[in-house]
Amino acid sequence: MDSESVKKAIIRQVIMEANVQNSRHLVEKINETCFDKCIAKPGSSISNGEKTCATQCMEKYMAAWNLVNQTYMRRVQQEINSGTFSS
Amino acid sequence: MDSQATVSQADIERLSDKDKADLRQVLAKEEQRNFVQQQSHTFTEICWKKCITSNIKSNVLDSSEGNCLANCVERFFDVTITTQKHLSAMRNQAGH
């Protein structure tokens, strides 16, 4: 491999690992949150209502994460522009 | 494993100075992106508890939930900054 392709391979691998890590973290949080929200009293089997709740909760949690991420990045940019972090 | 070759120690030693510098830059940016994503996990957890209080009836956020989440992140940020400022004021006071 020449230098250029080594560089590209490293970057690709680092980004891939970070993305895997991030989605694992998200799934973990979804399981915790949605179990809490949807399984109020664990029965002997999962009900259809609980399943529907779990899938809706999952999509909702992802939407919440995206909104939080967007809001957070916008705010960080705003603080950088106004010099909050520079002093 | 994917089709692309994996990077060995020998490959790394073959990196030019320019590519090393490029890599450092990319990795620093990547680290920043990861930090923001980690923070997003934390904030989503905190703000979900505050804002999604009723039972799940749909797979989308309604407008009041969305507003609450955005406000929650902004206010969390405010508290962080306020704490930081007060902390440095206390530190200055203690110094006198």
UniProtKB/TrEMBL annotation, chain A:
SUPFAM superfamilies: Tim10-like. Keywords: Chaperone, Disulfide bond, Membrane, Metal-binding, Mitochondrion, Mitochondrion inner membrane, Protein transport, Translocation, Transport, Zinc. It is a peripheral membrane protein. It comes from the Eukaryota. Residues 13-73 form the Tim10-like domain. One of its GO terms (biological process) is protein transport. One of its GO terms (cellular component) is mitochondrial intermembrane space chaperone complex. It is found in: Mitochondrion inner membrane. GO terms for molecular function: metal ion binding. InterPro entries: Tim10-like (IPR004217), Tim10-like_dom_sf (IPR035427). The twin CX3C motif contains 4 conserved Cys residues that form 2 disulfide bonds in the mitochondrial intermembrane space. Heterohexamer; composed of 3 copies of TIM8 and 3 copies of TIM13, named soluble 70 kDa complex. Associates with the TIM22 complex, whose core is composed of TIM22 and TIM54. Interacts with the transmembrane regions of multi-pass transmembrane proteins in transit. Belongs to the small Tim family. Mitochondrial intermembrane chaperone that participates in the import and insertion of some multi-pass transmembrane proteins into the mitochondrial inner membrane. Also required for the transfer of beta-barrel precursors from the TOM complex to the sorting and assembly machinery (SAM complex) of the outer membrane. Acts as a chaperone-like protein that protects the hydrophobic precursors from aggregation and guide them through the mitochondrial intermembrane space. This is Mitochondrial import inner membrane translocase subunit.
From TrEMBL, chain B:
Heterohexamer. Keywords: Chaperone, Disulfide bond, Membrane, Mitochondrion, Mitochondrion inner membrane, Protein transport, Translocation, Transport. It is a peripheral membrane protein. Pfam families: zf-Tim10_DDP. The keyword Transmembrane does not apply. GO terms for cellular component: mitochondrial inner membrane. Residues 26-88 form the Tim10-like domain. This is Mitochondrial import inner membrane translocase subunit. It comes from the Eukaryota. GO terms for biological process: protein transport. InterPro entries: Tim10-like, Tim10-like_dom_sf. Belongs to the small Tim family. Mitochondrial intermembrane chaperone that participates in the import and insertion of some multi-pass transmembrane proteins into the mitochondrial inner membrane. Also required for the transfer of beta-barrel precursors from the TOM complex to the sorting and assembly machinery (SAM complex) of the outer membrane. Acts as a chaperone-like protein that protects the hydrophobic precursors from aggregation and guide them through the mitochondrial intermembrane space. It is found in: Mitochondrion inner membrane. Its main location: mitochondrion. The twin CX3C motif contains 4 conserved Cys residues that form 2 disulfide bonds in the mitochondrial intermembrane space.
